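How a chain folds remains the central question behind the approach discussed here. The record that follows shows the chain in one-letter code together with its fold in token form:
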Amino acid sequence: MSDSTAKPLQNVVALVTGANAGIGRATAIELARRGARVFLAARSEAKTRAVVEEIARATPSAKPEFLSLDLGDFASIRRCADDFLRRDLPLRLLINNAGVGGHRGLTPSGFELTFGTNHVGHFLFTSLLLERLKKSAPARVITVSSRAHSRAGGIDFEAVQRPTRSISGIDEYSVSKLANVLFSAELARRLQGTGVTTYAVHPGVVASDIWRRVPPPFQWVMKLFMLSNEDGAKTTLHCATSPEAGAETGLYYDKCQPARPSALARDTHLAGELWRRSEAWTGG
């Protein structure tokens, strides 16, 4: 077996947000196993170091590295992007995986906590890395969304700048996941012809750490029907690696196949408005 067959992602640099646990951890481990050099971006250095060490033991050639990233804090996002860019490496895979659900409050940068982390933080992070992605083309940007996006009735652009209102936080989560799908589709339109392709994915309903702040009665019921993190990473990995996915851009994926998102998620006017506001919020 040739090395290229054994390691299909040899010499590919990948950056995974939220890689310290859950789907992100499973994604980073598998990308490294396939030969990628993986950067793991997360808030907790202690938790992420454990994953870095796990990858290094299993795949010594992977050279995994930790990057400090708090997606609710614009200053942290800019430092993380600068930290990566200073290394002067190509970037072929950006996986916007990190997310929160069931949290309540505001981010340090002044957005409803779930929306600010899941959408605004990733919007800024992707924007800061976009030129490197284009220079590294063919490259892919995968944003982990959720089928929960279809529960959202729209985006209240004033409410997303106020503290969480719902008790469970699930309403706000749905809005943030709608924003993820809209962002991925609009990014694809803006990157046509650059060699950078984009994907929004529904990983399945996964028993990951994202739901650790949901009140116990909700959490116990939800986890009865959830997938493992490894199963949850399958669609992300498909979009990151498969030739079939590489021939498409801007689509929404479920169970490793293109799927039809909600009508609002296909609204190009709403996607454009979200993009314009996100640029204004982040100083783009």
Notes: The chain has eleven helices and eight strands. The first helix runs from residue 3 to 6. The chain has a mean pLDDT of 91. Residues 3-282 form a domain with the Rossmann fold fold (CATH 3.40.50.720).
